[in-house]
Amino acid sequence: MEIASAVTAQPSPTGGESGLRDRAAEGPIVRVDNLEKRYPTARGELALFRGLNLEVHGGEMVAIVGQSGAGKSTLLHILGALDAPSAGTVYCASTNLAHLRPREAAAFRNREIGYVWQFHYLLPEFTALENVALPLLARGTRRTGAPGDRSSSLGWKTGAPGDRSSSLGWKTGAPGDRSSSLGWKREALGVAANWLREVGLEDRADHRPGELSGGEQQRVALARALVGNPRILLADEPTGDLDAITAARVFDLIECLHRDHGLTSILVTHNLDLAARCTRTLRLENGRLAPLAAAPPIASYPQAADGKSTIPPVC
């Protein structure tokens, strides 16, 4: 795939290492020790996690299954620095998340974590291309405008109403002109276009989310999650809103992206058939994680007479 050359050919928006890193040889990239999460309730304290431990090595694809309400989404939120534990330590990408202040946690998520939810959460007023570029534009505002100054850093307050080329300022500016916010936007859109090509949606770049199918929306969300070249992909029921055939295709794409870009992926799913395709599967139960006993996969999408999937390969 051509995204690697496309990314390495452009300077990193954060000024750091550019290009795709070789992550398969890394040791544990996620480590959770004695994690506890407690919530106060009218009937007393509710303990969601009780001494939970987890270790995920670089290049692994780990599935987490369990009953609804077991805390699977909460665990992903904690791993992604969106929530904090009541006790215990969480290390992700060599970072102790407890040491991060709110701004540092936001920067950590932007740099190290790609997050995909069951719902795509694409911004409806922006095109697929613009949605994918947003994480890079957020990263660039640290160099091109005052934090929170949307009028100067993203140009959203200028231009005639409805004039998307001028109001967003994304169609102007000299390529490579890193001294201006326009140059950053040109860079971000170039990388975003390559990621849309990576997920097979280059011909849908100018379509808004409402003009895309459910599977296409989720593929755009995947491109947005990975456009910043993160080390870790967290996916919370990424196929939960899709029919069986589309879900299988999206999961095929996740597998391809995981393999081709050396990701470390942790997925929450209720689909044991898809979970069986991961490196290993863990069950979250009674506040702790335990390996799930291997079981024959259950066909959840059409099969040919010879038992092989009728779903065409994605990559």
Low-confidence segments, given as residue ranges, are 1-25, 141-179, 295-314
Number of separate strands = 10
Q: At the first level of CATH, what is the class? A: Alpha Beta
Please bin the fraction of helical residues. 25-40%
Q: Per DSSP, what share of the residues sits in E-state strands of 2 or more residues?
A: 15-25%
Q: What structural class do the secondary elements suggest? A: alpha/beta
- Rounded to an integer in angstroms, the radius of gyration calculated over CA atoms is 20 Å
Oligomer: single chain
Q: What order do the SSEs take from the amino end to the carboxyl end, as H and E? A: HEEEHEEHEHHHHHEHEHEE
Instruction: Assign the CATH superfamily.
Output: P-loop containing nucleotide triphosphate hydrolases
On the 0-100 scale, what is the average pLDDT?
77
Total count of domains: 1
Individual helix count: 10
What's the main sheet like? Answer: 6 strands, mixed
Can you tell me about this structure?
The protein is of the alpha/beta class. Helix content is 32%, strand content 21%. The chain has one domain (3-291): 3-Layer(aba) Sandwich (Rossmann fold), CATH 3.40.50. The chain has helices at 3-8, 72-79, 102-112, 128-144, 150-153, 164-167, 181-198, 214-226, 244-260, 272-275, and strands at 28-41, 44-57, 61-65, 87-92, 95-96, 113-116, 232-236, 264-268, 280-285, 288-291. Strand 7 (232-236), helix 9 and strand 8 (264-268) form a beta-alpha-beta unit. It starts with a helix and ends in a 24-residue tail after the last strand.
